[in-house]
Amino acid sequence: MSAVMVDDHHHDGPDSGIKRWICTTNHKDIGTLYLWFAMIMFFLGGLMALVVRAELFQPGLQFVDPQFFNSMTTMHALLMIFGVVMPAFTGLANWLIPMMVGGTDMALPRLNNWSFWLLPFAFTMLLATLFVPGGAPAGGWTLYPPLTLQTGAALPLLIFAIHLMGMSSIMGAINVIATILNMRAPGMTLMKMPMFVWTWLITAYLLIAVMPVLAGGVTMLLTDKYFGTSFFNAAGGGDPVMFQHIFWFFGHPEVYILILPSFGVISMILPTFARKPLFGYNSMVYATASIAFLSFVVWAHHMFTVGMPLAAQLFFMLSTMLIAVPTGVKVFNWVATMWRGSMTFETPMLFAIGFIVLFTIGGFSGLMLAIVPADYQYHDTYFVVAHFHYVLVPGSIFAIMAAVYYWLPKWTGHLYNETLGKWHFWLSTIFVNLTFFPMHFTGLAGMPRRIPDYALQFTDYNMLASIGAFGFGLAQLLFLYIVVATVRGGERATDRVWDGADGLEWTLPSPPPYHTFTTPPQIR
Amino acid sequence: MTAQTQYYVPHGSHWPIVGSVALFMTFVGLSAMLNEASFGLPLMGAGIAILLVMMFGWFGTVVRESEANAYNDQVDRSFRWGMFWFIFSEVMFFAAFFGALFYARTFSLPWLGGEGDGAATNMYLWPGFEALWPSNANGPSQIGGEFRQMGAWGIPAINTLILLTSGVTVTWAHHGLRANRRATLIFGLFLTVALGLVFVGLQAYEYIHAYTDLNLTLGAGIYGSTFFMLTGFHGLHVTIGAIMLIVILARSIAGHFTPDRHFAFEAAAWYWHFVDVVWLGLFFFVYWL
Q1: What is the 8-class DSSP label of residue B116?
Q2: Fewer CB within 10 Å, N or C, chain B?
Q3: Residue A433 contacts by C-beta under 8 Å, 6 or more apart in sequence?
Q4: Are A110 and B97 within 8 A, CB to CB?
Q5: Which tens digit of pLDDT belongs to each residue from B149-183?
Q6: Do the chains contact at A182 and B141, CB–CB below 8 Å?
Q7: Is A267 among the catalytic positions?
Q8: CB within 8 Å: A213 and B92
């Protein structure tokens, strides 16, 4: 044996200063980094949305030129998807999965650090595109050629930023799978795992399967622009529609990547505040797996109007509608979990119930969009914008907020201010509906998305939506305040925090020590 | 020396942030090069250099920990899951380019030629275009000019034999390791690396032949695009796999690995079999059919 030193002396606590955060291999630290990163990006992406809503407050061009307006819609989407929802869920996974399965840490701790620390660099590159000649990407987050190929100097930065985000997601997903499959305490069988762990396991499979496809697709964009290839150029035998197929083969599973962990969060919170076990645990697992499987065979419903054979349209319409079945199972189980429960309505529960109601609205508008002939009318209108914002804002974002309120006392050891939490919920819920509900009507009446101007008859609804958006944005400052105040101090939380809470993480002290479950717990 | 009973959790590492800085410099440098900024090349070069230092340092740390028996069986399983799903992500990366090839051959070219829904497209936009693969596969505008396709039964067939043989030699080396016959291990690995390098050399020769004699370039329409993208990324992966095997060879010569514990060897071997299988796909769908 060669004389090498291995760092096996046991540190009990974290390093001090900035080194703790840059070099950390601790799942709790990395979870915290992810969550704060998501918070920062949430406000940046939100500011971009407010530029859009300010411009759309009135018809005509007021504040920004159309190119910049389109940059704002594009960057808003990229930031919110890749910079907020995905990192926030990965942050939750980091904090919670090892504690929930009774593992010491994530399975591959150094890789875990790298997964996070790629993100600030990726988003530096993405945000830098705002300042390069030709401006930030303005062709929409879907990056369709040939429009996106007209991007100026920003194009390579955009594409390499996406590559880095993809690497980060893939490595994060590999870590989640290895952790769930290999770090469970003895006795924690797969079908005993908390739903949040299950949904993340399935999400991680989706991530590993589709992020590389996006990487391949954007690489072809890059070579088409700079190296003379003809993948998306009909004159050279390629096809711009091919990009749409590649993109949505990634893009549709991606929307489930953005929502499945939310399902897990909601399935954790409802039983606690209904004081009943989750209704139909097994069917929840199978429903999640079915949704994930189906998500691979529905992608072309995003592109019905592009021109495709009738048989393909029928197939993608029917397979899309099939997803309503497992999703319906989930909503049914959530309602059944609450049925005759001794319910209380603390902030996490309010967000969870808000999620169920409002996400279901988004689900129903999704069913409408799946109908091919109806989609010809809805395509690229504000109806689509209303649909996906209902599933993403009071869907994914509400679930993330519910999770933060639910586990923040565990993470920090302090209780948040319940009154302020309720204010945050009600303001968010009112304003989110004020913002997005009118978009259904403007969309059905034919208002196109991604245009900085609109016909006069859409003015009233657009004004309402803009007021709602600014109200929603301001309400999130309250969220920031509540989180910061809870981190800094507040009433001490007990270990169990919620009297109906069940699961391994609640057996640990609040806040948990730096290293937990170094010896595995006993599972009943 | 006995293996640890506790799961090994390293306390802090600076390699990930070094890697992030390196990738940031590499990609910003490459972006600058594509936009013809003069600082691009040095920035990218520095980024790649730092990336190499990072890989040397990071893998070096892991090797030292492994040799010091810091890893128990559970850590070993984590590495296995990690490598397996990494390879799966690579499979999906290639799937995007194979998908482009299949889409172009099955849909976009025949549509341009007027088949099915493409009748009007052909009649009004590209009159007279016949969708013939591969001779007309650079599209109605004959982008890149006339070219000849790369035949399957010359170098590609030899390369197929070379890669398949290298799959055998790496397995032979594995058997040697399992039976603790170090000479077999080292010789088998040496043969595998040598075959891999011959493969890369022949690919390079084939590229030169394509550019100089066949007028087959990256710019030769969808044929050239898919041909060079698929074979290029594959060649890159063979090179990566060969570097992995060279490291494993060096470690074998240094006396690392035991008949029971040699995950690094297996990881490199898995990766090698993966590039082998991808090559079979290339041979069938890019060169032959």
Answers
A1: G
A2: N
A3: A358, A394, A468
A4: no
A5: 998 999 999 999 999 999 999 999 999 999 999 99
A6: no
A7: yes
A8: yes
